[in-house]
Amino acid sequence: MAVRVASVPAGHPYPQAIVARPGETSADQELEILADPIVDPDEPARWWPHRALEPAFWTDRPADVLHIHFGFEHLSLEQTHELAATLQRLSVPLVLTVHDLDNPHVESQTTYHQQLGILIAQADHLITLTPASAALIDDRYGRKAHVLPHPPIVGRREVLPSYPLTDVGVFLKSGRANVVKDPEFYRELGADRVFAHADSAQMAALATDVHEPMDDEQLFSAIASHRVVVLPYVRGTHSGWLQMCRELGVSVAAPDCGCYWDQADVPEAVEIYRAGDGQDAARACARLLERGQFAYHSPRISHRDVVDFHRNLYVQLGSKGKSAR
């Protein structure tokens, strides 16, 4: 019988990228990745708040392994303790990938750090994306984390720029909570293009290019038309945007918070600036433009190795969990 994995969330691009597509290999038939429970029938794609984080979800033992990536910050400390106690009582193995040592969606990190400590203590296996993050986990929580690089986002697709190459761009979308909102930052930065979604008046006011959400191909071609992209963040730890930019051969100016710098495939292609400082971000962009562009260098571990690692881990933990029941 296949090992059933509840991935929180299953529908996010990252968790989807670390498991094989259905039927890709016979070995991957050992796994069943459960779909995210429908939270709202009127919005079926919304997975949050995820039901697998509720102790009641586990009453009938619908999965053999729980793998948490994101989306637990809505829990109280009491609820986080209750989840950990439920998993321990039912012998449900927990895999935790620490994407965010600092949560980009919340301003005060105190409760989030405590939640992370509870889950890290309960986890049967810890994963993170960079050596810098692993060192911080060891220092703060006394646990060793297995380092696996960010999986490919663009992959082997051929991407053509949508218009002639531009020096510096910023993509605000609808404005996550960790994005700089101060107009002075963008005036000091002086980017050639600032993109924002039309559904956010606050972000649109900062933008030179207001648009509807792009599909993947539109987004990739828009990013590929820049020499440098700025990540305008004030907190966070890792970035799928940085990964995406580097796969497209675009250099990145990233803030000095988190572990963004340690995601660099080529150190010269990522320049750090003081978070929230537009003048320093402009200087970082100037340094990157002076160096020229660098082709993306794939990590030494292949994407297939990452997929195999997760499959073997799920099967091992799931089989151990079944025997403990």
Q: What would you say this structure looks like, in words?
A:
By secondary structure, this protein is α/β, with parallel strands linked by helices. It has 2 domains: 169 residues, Rossmann fold; 126 residues, Rossmann fold. It is 33% helix and 16% strand. Strands 2-1-3-4-5-6 form a 6-stranded parallel beta sheet. Strands 9-8-7-10-11-12 form a 6-stranded parallel beta sheet, sandwiched between helices. Helix 2 runs parallel beside helix 3. It is globular and about 60 Å long. The relative contact order is 0.13. This is Glycosyltransferase family 4 protein. InterPro entries: Glyco_trans_4-like_N. Keywords: Glycosyltransferase, Transferase. One of its GO terms (molecular function) is glycosyltransferase activity.
Quick rundown:
By secondary structure, the protein is α/β, with parallel strands linked by helices. Helix content is 33%, strand content 16%. It has two domains: 3-149 and 303-324, Rossmann fold (3-Layer(aba) Sandwich); 166-291, Rossmann fold (3-Layer(aba) Sandwich), CATH 3.40.50.
Q: What fraction strand?
A: 15-25%
CATH T-level fold name of the largest domain = Rossmann fold
Helix-strand makeup class: alpha/beta
Strand order of the biggest β-sheet: 2-1-3-4-5-6
What is the total number of structural domains? 2
Number of helices: 10
Give the second-level CATH assignment, the architecture of the largest domain.
3-Layer(aba) Sandwich
Helix content: 25-40%
The gross shape turns out to be globular
Would you report the number of β strands? 12
Q: Radius of gyration in whole Å, from Cα?
A: 20 Å
Distance between the termini: 16 Å
Largest pleated sheet: 6 strands, parallel
The CATH top-level class label of the largest domain: Alpha Beta
The average pLDDT value, as a whole number, equals: 95
Give the oligomer, counting copies of the same chain as homo and different chains as hetero: single chain
Provide the succession of SSEs. EHEEHEHEHEEHEHEHEHEEHH
Low-pLDDT segments, ≥5 res: none
